[in-house]
Specification:
- The complex is a heterodimer of chains A (351) and B (546).
- Chain A is of the alpha/beta class and 351 residues long.
- Chain A contains twelve helices and eleven strands.
- In chain A, helix 6 runs parallel beside helix 12.
- Chain A starts with a helix and ends with a helix.
- In chain B, helix 2 crosses helix 17, helix 9 runs antiparallel to helix 12 and helix 9 runs antiparallel to helix 18.
- Chain B contains 23 helices and one strand.
- With 546 residues, chain B is mainly alpha-helical.
- The longest helix of chain B has 34 residues.
- The chains are: A alpha/beta (351), B mainly alpha (546).
- Chains A and B meet through strand 2, helix 3, strand 7, helix 7 and helix 8 of A and helix 6, helix 10, helix 11, helix 17 and strand 1 of B.
- Strand 2 of chain A pairs antiparallel with strand 1 of chain B.
């Protein structure tokens, strides 16, 4: 492992020296580390500063508001990247990122504390940092915990007619995750495929929103939702967010999470190919896997830390559960079929 | 200008003439054409060859129907907006009533609000639990209404701006000769207004043809414009070749429309005497009714969605509270950018964008208004093109193009640069009709009396142009304040603008975040109104009304 690191580092140094010789300057120790990430990236004050102090550098953060946009920007600037390290590539885009060759391999020592099922790239070009589950949330003031739908199939029952809001998979990341969950559950072959399932959902008057915010705030009735439908595609951590951001202190989360039919989104970080500061980038990935950073994740990004040794904050312990047996699909399978699936979903759902 | 005179022209004059053309042209080449061609070449140089993606675009029924929908909804939206907003343009141009400048500023607010905010306001109005009690979401009606709501101000400003300067005696003469109101309007005012109507219609057509946020939020992807499809292909599928092919298709369509329009406008440009302020108090009961009725309709139509925003910002928790506002300065959780910072960023970017847009726009307008023939036409077309280019394409174009000689890809300067590209057409559209309407004979008279060309321009043209330039400046600033698309697709260090902050807040769970988003939208609304009001105030100090 160390050999690999040294090898990578050596390669980088050679590349950096080669590059700088061409420019006729003396190589200097980089004093800035640039992180490329998406709009949802958030940490508490003082966390990044600690890394800066430890390494004597300034961390500059470049944001795109959309994970897809970010990845495209990274792909378009391959070899002459805008940043040294990227964070926020999820498992649905992972295969595209790896195929485009924008990431360099780096095996962080912190990976020993990360469960194997999160480590999707055997070459360690992408390091898992956090994961979140996209699940159906229900309004507990309308649906009792005992009456909540127990499976995806239950959502087509008459008692849930007109009660479910989903996001359009073409415009929304949780919407796409939910589509994947149904494809993982019902498959493409046989008598009853995912398309049959969606046709039944449609017959059961499912509402489709363009984005998560519209679905959650305008259509969903639970928590902060102002709508009339008690079931929505959201996240396993949403009830905790409802408690944290509530105006009035709450003992009980106003919303619950359906335990079946969840899809796991894993977010990865990686060293960008062509970085001026590959060592620093690697150090930053180690830092992101450190307990300190990992324990800061839940209350800022409302996802779960990849490091199994990180403690969850009390509000997460009290108001969220990590669903068992979540659906997953191979990243390569997703990449090969994403557009076709969305277009087929369109054909099923749109008049 | 005769040949001998041209030879006698001093160098400074000639240099100035060259610069007037070179500056806007150079700006456009560097800031727009170069990034655009870079990204299109990147997209179209894939393994399928340059023509492969076009085959996919024309071969797929789903993509063909996207093109058709884009066209017809833009035509309908444009006609609807012009018809619906015409009475308001007339009332604001011709009558002076209490609160006029306040109201005129208010009319412009919808035009510069971030689309996703207006989208959610319209959902609250027309959605399943809408205030109107009818569910129009995911119907074409919601989209058309939102388009009219957005572009109402374009007609009021552009058409009203010229209308205010039409000599009312022309119409009066027609009335004296026995023409009815409608006939006098149709035969006297309408032909004179045609350049302004064409200008307004072309802007609205461009905006609705390339509509993005409204279609996304209200159309639920059952309705997709080419612009939405470009975004979808880029973001959801990472399919740059098809996105590039669609961008080219959109650019070609927009160019054709603009070409037809500029030819039409060349033929229609009418010289007329610009009267000074013509607005007067309504005198008869009939006039009061007309003014009152038009204003009531405008206030209801534009005010309802905006008031819903304010109402939502004050409804955090049970009953009414200002919690959303007081928590805007809160930095305790790092999810949130302090609003003060986003406000400061927006204002800073807005000022820079305004200055760039004014300088380039007025120079370009000079060329368009005073030069005859193809140069002027091509110029006009080129400057409008950024409006017809998708925000994703521009953002990614900057990324591919600006890596050398200096790496500007992550420079915050790119944000006002992108904003100014979108604002320049407004400056041009606001200033050109005024320039063209300045009577050439007036200038010639000044020249005969011994004024140098520059002096004639300074004494005759400049005061009139300056006044329309102020309006354009207010516009440019306000557009920059509310711009979302291009800003979102530029990579940048942490410098969020207000629309970006609103977008981030909307994407977070929790009632308080939603309240904060609405509170920030309300503040943006107030800021926009204030920026336009300041210009109104400033203009009152000028002679004339413009």
């Amino acid at each position: 492992m160390t050999k690999a690191v040294c090898g990578t580092v050596l390669l980088f140094l050679l590349a950096a020296c080669g590059g700088s010789e061409a420019n006729g300057t003396v190589p200097t120790v980089p004093d800035t580390l640039t992180l490329m990430t998406h709009g949802s990236f958030a940490v508490s004050d003082g966390i990044i500063e600690r890394f800066e102090a430890e390494h004597g550098v300034t961390v500059e953060i470049l944001r795109s508001d959309d994970a897809g946009a970010m990845l495209n920007q990274a792909i378009l600037t391959r070899g002459n990247p805008l940043a040294d390290v990227i964070f926020g590539i999820d498992n649905t885009f992972l295969s595209r990122a790896l195929d485009a060759g924008i990431l360099d391999s780096y095996t962080s020592p912190g990976l020993t504390a990360v469960p194997d099922d999160l480590q999707l790239d055997s070459e360690h070009r992408a390091t898992p940092i956090d994961f979140g589950d996209v699940c159906i949330n229900f309004d507990r003031s309308v649906i009792n915990d005992n009456d909540a739908p127990a499976s995806l199939a239950a959502l087509t029952e008459d008692r849930f007619r007109g009660q479910l809001v989903v996001e359009n998979p073409a415009t929304s990341s949780p919407g796409l995750a939910f589509l994947f969950a149904t494809i993982a559950e019902f498959g493409e072959e046989g008598d009853y495929t995912w398309k049959d399932y969606w046709a039944e959902l449609k017959a059961n008057e499912v509402t489709v929103s363009a984005g998560w915010d519209d679905a959650y705030y305008s259509q969903f009735s639970g928590g902060a939702g102002q709508g009339e439908r008690p079931l929505v595609v959201s996240y396993a951590s949403s009830p905790a967010a409802e408690v944290v951001f509530s105006e009035t202190p709450l003992d009980e989360a106003p919303t619950g999470v359906m335990q079946a039919g969840c899809f796991r989104q894993i977010e990865f970080a990686g060293v960008l190919n062509g970085s001026d500061a590959p060592e620093l980038a690697a150090a930053f990935i180690d830092f992101m896997l450190s307990i300190e950073f990992q324990e800061d994740i839940p209350l800022n990004m409302f996802v779960f830390p990849a490091n199994r040794e990180a403690q969850l904050p009390p509000v997460f312990v009290d108001h969220t559960t990590i669903p068992q047996g979540v659906a997953t699909l191979e990243p390569a399978l997703i990449d090969a079929n994403r557009q076709r699936w969305i277009e087929e979903w369109d054909a099923v759902m749109l008049p | 200008m005769t040949l001998s005179r041209a030879r006698r022209a001093a160098w400074p004059g000639r240099l100035a003439r060259i610069l007037v053309v070179a500056i806007p042209l150079g700006f456009l080449a560097v800031a727009f054409l170069y990034p655009l061609s870079s990204i299109l070449l990147t997209g179209l140089s894939g393994e399928a060859g340059a023509l492969g993606p076009f085959g996919e675009v024309f071969g797929k029924a789903s993509l063909r129907s996207v093109a058709w929908f884009t066209l017809w909804q833009a035509v309908v939206s444009t006609i609807l907006t012009v018809v619906v907003a015409m009475p308001a343009a007339y009332v604001f141009a011709r009558y002076d009533f209490p609160g006029r400048s306040l109201l005129r500023a208010a009319v412009t607010i919808p035009f510069v609000l971030p689309t996703l905010v207006v989208g959610s306001a319209f959902l609250a109005l027309l959605g399943p639990r809408g205030a109107l009690g009818i569910d129009l979401s995911s119907t074409i009606w919601a989209i058309l209404l939102a388009h009219v709501f957005y572009n109402y101000a374009v007609v009021v400003r552009t058409v009203g701006g010229l209308w205010a300067h039409l000599d009312p005696r022309l119409t009066e003469a027609a009335r004296v000769l026995g023409a009815g109101r409608w006939r006098a309007f149709r035969t006297v005012s309408l032909p004179l207004l045609r350049p302004a109507i064409a200008a307004a219609a072309s802007i609205i057509f461009l905006f609705t043809f390339t509509s993005f946020g409204v279609i996304l939020v209200l159309g639920n992807l059952e309705f997709r414009t080419i612009e939405v499809e470009i975004w979808r292909q880029t973001m959801s599928f990472l399919n740059l070749p098809v996105a590039a092919a669609l961008s080219v298709l959109q650019l070609v369509a927009v160019s054709l429309i603009l070409l037809a329009y500029s030819r039409y406008q060349q033929r229609r440009a009418v010289e007329q005497r610009l009267a000074p302020a013509t607005a007067r108090k309504p005198q008869t009961a009939r006039e009061w009714w007309m003014v009152g009725g038009t204003l009531t309709f405008t206030a209801l139509f534009l005010g309802t969605p905006l008031l819903l925003l304010v109402e939502r910002s004050l409804q955090v928790g049970e009953g009414w509270s200002t919690a959303a506002y007081t928590s805007l300065t809160d930095t305790s959780d790092s999810l949130f950018v302090p609003a003060t910072e986003a406000i400061a960023n927006s204002i800073g970017f807005g000022l820079v964008a305004m200055i760039i847009a004014l300088v380039v726009g007025i120079l370009a307008a000079t060329v368009i208004a005073y030069r005859q023939g193809p140069v002027s036409q091509w110029f006009d077309l080129l400057l409008m093109l950024p409006l017809g280019t998708s925000a994703v394409t521009i953002g990614f174009g900057f990324l591919v193009a600006f890596d050398s000689p200096i790496d500007l890809r992550t420079s915050p300067f790119l944000i006002p640069l992108a904003h100014s590209l979108i604002a320049i057409p407004f400056v041009v559209r606001t200033v050109v009709p005024v320039m063209q309407a300045i009577r050439r004979r007036l200038r010639e008279a000044a020249r005969v009396l011994g004024a140098s060309p520059f002096r004639a321009w300074r004494e005759i043209d400049l005061p009139l142009i300056a006044r329309s330039g102020l309006v354009a400046a207010g516009f440019a600033f306000a557009i920059s304040l509310g711009e979302f698309g291009a800003t979102a697709f530029l990579v940048r260090p942490e410098r969020p603008t207000m629309p970006i902050a609103i977008f981030r807040l909307l994407g977070r769970p929790g009632e308080l975040n939603f309240g904060r988003a609405m509170a920030l939208s309300t503040i943006l609304m107030v800021l926009t109104a204030a920026s336009i009001m300041i210009i109104e105030r400033f203009r009152l100090g000028e002679t004339g009304e413009f």
